[in-house]
Amino acid sequence: MIKTQRKLILAGLLSGIGIGMLLAGCQSIPKKAQPVRNFEKEKYLGKWYEIARIDFKFEKNLEQTTAEYSLRKDGAIKVVNRGYNYKTKKWEQATGKAKFRINERVGALKVSFFGPFYSGYNVIALSGDYKYALVAGKNLDYLWFLSRHPYMPEEVKADFLAKARAVGYDVERLIWVKQEA
Hints:
Number of strands: 9
Largest sheet: 8 strands, antiparallel, barrel
CATH class: Mainly Beta
Radius of gyration: 19 Å
Number of helices: 3
Structural class: alpha+beta
Number of domains: 1
CATH superfamily: Calycin beta-barrel core domain
CATH topology: Lipocalin
């Protein structure tokens, strides 16, 4: 009886340690990236055009992609991503929500489009006028260049490319998104 109890306690402890290690291993931002400080949520809200991205399955074949952010009644941020699939000739849209991971003054968020599953969304560079943003995902497979307009000046692109390289991104993987002006 005592041996059985010890085995159960040991199994419970090992399970708890395993789950803790698993959760600690969940990455929300690339190691060399830092989210912006003095972030102003209200200034970030609104429509952004995707200028460049590292492509992934949920945005495959999309152009004219945008993201629109607005406040939800529960304090989270509503996220509406939209793009035109040039292969199917149809518009696609996904609606999700974002929450701050640290506090509202730090550009470190988590975003979900699929129920309880969240992923990192980290503003790692932002122009003072909130016209241009460089956003890192949870790891080096996710990166976005965003602009308030369907274009981005070359000097901003060059700055974002340098910052992305410094974090460790392979910027050769970027696709430059076709936007209708």
